[in-house]
Design a protein that fits this description.
It is a single chain. By secondary structure, the chain is of the alpha+beta class. About 30% of the residues lie in helices and about 25% in strands. It is built from 7 helices and 10 strands. A 6-stranded antiparallel beta sheet has the order 1-2-3-10-5-8, with no helix packed on it. A hairpin with a 2-residue loop joins strand 1 and strand 2. Helix 2 packs parallel to helix 5 and helix 5 runs antiparallel to helix 6. It is elongated, with a radius of gyration of 23 Å. It starts with 12 loop residues before the first strand and ends in a 17-residue tail after the last helix. About 30% of the residues are buried.
């Protein structure tokens, strides 16, 4: 069941010199670590730590400044972080900390085991849009085709690859992908009905009926 919560509805818990907002525990999230921390100007926001200690999760971490202004220090490098800043720390051994520069500063911390996430199929063809918009369908195909390693049975991925290949005049590839798309996801036939991206292959006798 969906759960909805505003981060400021979580009463912060004062612990270890910090104000911790226990997001993961409250929502019952099990796929990744996520918590919030809040502080006023001049106060410690994120304690100095790395991800190798006994209490650490061994996570790569992303810090998202939701409000206020923070100053992070990562491996002795200061990073100014107004609201909207993302600070990604992939190395477990990196020492990181943050202090609040303005009042009501809140940071969201998201952590997980590196190398365990398999991107969704859609991420590959969304990423391909930049090349397609720039008039480079071959580049779009190459970007999206990387998704086949994890999603060889995705009808929507094959459909988009068929479109890119057709636009790039790679008719053999386009026919192969549209055929596979129709096999894997029948609704792609409806998408194809009036999709101008596929015009180059509609009259090919190999086009699946």
């Amino acid at each position: 069941m969906v759960r909805v919560l505003r981060i400021d509805e979580l009463e912060p818990i004062a612990v270890a010199g910090l104000n911790w907002r226990p997001i993961r525990r409250t929502l019952g999230i099990t796929g990744f670590g996520i918590n919030g921390y809040s502080a006023d100007a001049g106060r410690q926001l994120i304690e100095q730590h790395d991800e190798t200690g006994g209490g650490a999760g061994g996570h790569e971490e992303l810090y998202v400044v939701l409000s206020g202004y923070a100053r992070f220090t990562v491996d002795a490098e200061d990073i100014e972080a107004p609201a909207g800043t993302l600070v990604f720390v992939p190395e477990l051994t990196s020492r990181r900390a943050a202090v609040a520069i303005s009042n009501a500063t809140t940071v969201l911390v998201i952590g997980g085991d590196g190398g365990t996430i398999k991107p969704s199929a859609w991420e590959h063809y969304f990423a391909a849009q930049a090349a397609l918009s720039a008039g480079d369908p071959k580049g779009a195909y190459e970007t999206a085709a990387a998704g086949l390693e994890d999603h060889s049975e995705s009808g929507s991925l094959h459909y988009n690859l068929a479109c890119y290949a057709a636009l790039a005049a790679d008719i053999d590839q386009a026919i192969a992908h549209i055929t596979r798309a129709f096999e894997l996801e029948p609704t792609t036939r409806e998408w194809a009905a009036d999709d101008a991206d596929l015009d180059a292959i509609r009259s090919d006798p190999r086009y699946p009926g």
